[in-house]
Amino acid sequence: MNYDIIALDVDGTLLTDAHVLTAETRDAVREAARLGAEIVLCTGRGPMNTIPVLEELGLSGTIITHNGAATIDAASRNVLHQFDMDNAELEKFINFCREGNHHFDVNTAFDLMVLGEIPPNVAAMYSGYKITPMLRDNALPLPSGLVKFTVFGEKEAMDSVELAWDGWTHGLQHIRSGDFFIDVQHPQVSKGDALKQLAMLRGVEPQRVMAIGNYFNDVGMLTFAGLGIAVANSPDGVKSAANALTLSNEENGVAHALHTYAW
């Protein structure tokens, strides 16, 4: 085995566009684990819809969730580390989304909350990701321990939101986590930093880390890892940050990368 840690993004990388884990990809990941690599799912998802993917792989262990904002022990459901946002800073983003009629949700390490109602198209999105949101009265103050705020909409709408927020000065960070999603989080949050922290805890040098991803929130872990691999469906900016390319998520790109580089 050429790598001690293999970090895998989930949506758009490990899973197909229909959020399916294919048998070929599952078997390749299991083989990497059998040969001694620690498999770390490193995702923008929360733990409640990441742990089932880990279980489908037949694995357990540590997962990096919410783009690195919460590192979780999957077996015990314990939070090993998390970055909380400043709720006062977050109010500006909430007001913007309400004024523009953009759907958003807020997340603690384990809970996803919607402040208000859920339109049918948004309900379908949550269902596709196997998420059951909690409905919270928008008149209530924001809860403590929030690690992620996500706005969702059509690509053109998210392009406009991103452009507007790029011009803001604030104490949080926003990052495009998909064509239809923008995440707002603590300024120190990144998949790359969380993966680096885990590797240091394990005593693993970056050269012994492989990472595979597909979007801009994966760039940090692709550049930290000794071998960062972008799947073929990645935007050009993500591909240019990677050391190597593999097939798309629709073509078992993770399995192809593991068979090519891992052992």
Description of the molecule:
The strands form 3 sheets. The protein has a 6-stranded mixed β-sheet, with helices on one face. The protein has a 5-stranded parallel β-sheet with strand order 2-1-12-13-14. The protein has 10 helices and 14 strands. Helix 2 packs parallel to helix 10. It is of the alpha/beta class. The chain has 2 domains: 152 residues, Rossmann fold, CATH 3.40.50.1000; 99 residues, Hypothetical Protein, Haloacid Dehalogenase-like Hydrolase, Chain: A, domain 2. 35% of the residues lie in helices and 24% in strands. InterPro entries: Cof (IPR000150), HAD-like_sf (IPR036412), HAD_sf (IPR023214). GO terms for molecular function: hydrolase activity. Keywords: Hydrolase.
Structural class: alpha/beta
Low-confidence stretches: none
**Taking strands numbered 1, 2, ... along the chain, how are they ordered across the largest sheet?**
8-7-6-9-11-10
For the sheet with most strands, the description reads:
6 strands, mixed
- Shape descriptor reads globular
Q: How much is the radius of gyration in Å?
A: 18 Å
Residue share in β-strands: 15-25%
CATH topology of the largest domain: Rossmann fold
Mean pLDDT: 97
Domains (count) = 2
User: Per CATH, which architecture of the largest domain?
Assistant: 3-Layer(aba) Sandwich
The CATH first-level class of the largest domain comes to Alpha Beta
- Overall helicity: 25-40%
CATH fourth-tier homologous superfamily of the largest domain: HAD superfamily/HAD-like
What are the secondary-structure elements, in order, as H or E?
Answer: EHHEHEEEHEEHEEHEEHEHEHEH
What is the CA-CA span between the terminal residues?
A: 5 Å
Give the count of helical stretches.
Answer: 10
Organism: Paenibacillus spongiae
Keywords: Hydrolase
GO molecular function: hydrolase activity
InterPro entries: Cof, HAD-like_sf, HAD_sf
